[in-house]
Amino acid sequence: MSEQEQPHAQELRFPEGCDSLLERCVHIMHTIDPIEKADLTLLLGEQWKQIIQARNSKEGAKEREVESMPLGRAMPPEKPSRPDTLEFVRPGFGVKVGKAGSLSSRIAILHALANVEQWAIDTALDNMARFGYYTQATAGTALKNQIENEENKEFVMPNRFFDDFMQMACDESKHFKWLNERLESQGAHYGDLPVHASIWDSCTDTARSALARMAVVHMTIESRGLDVNPATIARFSRSGDEDSAKMLRKVHEDEVTHVQIGHRWFCYLLKKHEGVGLDQDAGKAFGAAGGGDVNDADDDLYEFRQVPPAYAEKKSEEAGEASEVKQVEEEVVDPAEAQRRKRFQEVVVQYFKGSLKPPFNTADREKGGLTRGWYEPLVVVRERTGFKPAAGRRLQSKKDKQEGATAETAPVAGPLTAAVAQDGEVAPAPTSA
């Protein structure tokens, strides 16, 4: 962390009695001022970094607290605090950002990205406070052979979970400060333009399922950012704003690691509570015991590795939907990986309200753990069903706006869920309601 990124520790402090990690996470979520929110997050990150160093010096000790900061408990808010001066609009009804060809367009893009980073700070903090302690129900997993009366048994995430999301929160804070400083260098400020809360809407939709939070927010929405960032960076470069382009490249590099984090904890929850990824003998014992007894030491976490050549995706030059489905099916070799992908697709179908469409940044998605077999089947399903939730909501919202309606439109219903067969393959869409 450079001196410019360091929070002013002598000016910032947490209130008396706010001593634990999760209490401080929630305090930051309640912080209204966006700069103070980012600075407090960076301060907490420095404090937690010292705890990590102390923990690692204990030669394998697994304590979840070190002197000055226990893990603690705290209830996150339904929605993080924001300044009253911010003008909120529904997604799709804000300022048209353009393609960075003019100063006003570049300001609009930077402002939109700064808004995303503000919500991303709160999302990472909410993950820790909401899912640091969890039950089988709030894990969002479909536990097989679940032991009776143990659905409310409480679990606690490993240290690595808090380390990962604390780092993510600090990354997002750093990004916000960079973007805000860049805005100010152009004569603008965060809050000058309308903003939306679509990311937090997704957090609300996944508030009762850690598995869904990882799949939707970090593995789907953040990976979509990996798809669009390179084009945005190129537009800033073409416009001559290389300072912004350089900054956005650094942001993009961090976002790859955020997809990795979501992938890591999605796979962890599947392994711990559904037995996905265990070897055959361990899987049998897991099922007989009702699940949940997997060693949760940090070194037991599933980590994505580049697949060996034998498992590499087969390139097909054939056009058309059938060849795409065939390509995905051929690429899936490892049964545990196939199970992980199938569950991911089921969760996304259930919880994600947006659209998933190419082009994809396959190289950076793969760095984050998502080879094409994870997400391409979802695109095929949507094409075959004709289900376009994002467009449907936008069309309805325009109609509401013309009629002067103020209430939020209901989510668009569709046949997408029914189009995913039990075996994970793409099934024909229903022909009628």
TrEMBL record:
Q: Where is this region: Disordered?
A: 55-85, 386-433
Please give the superkingdom of this protein's source.
Answer: Eukaryota
Residue ranges under compositional bias (Basic and acidic residues)? 56-67
- Supply the InterPro entries for this chain: DUF455, Ferritin-like_SF
Q: Which Pfam families match?
A: DUF455
Q: What is this protein called?
A: DUF455-domain-containing protein
Q: Which organism is it from?
A: Mortierella hygrophila
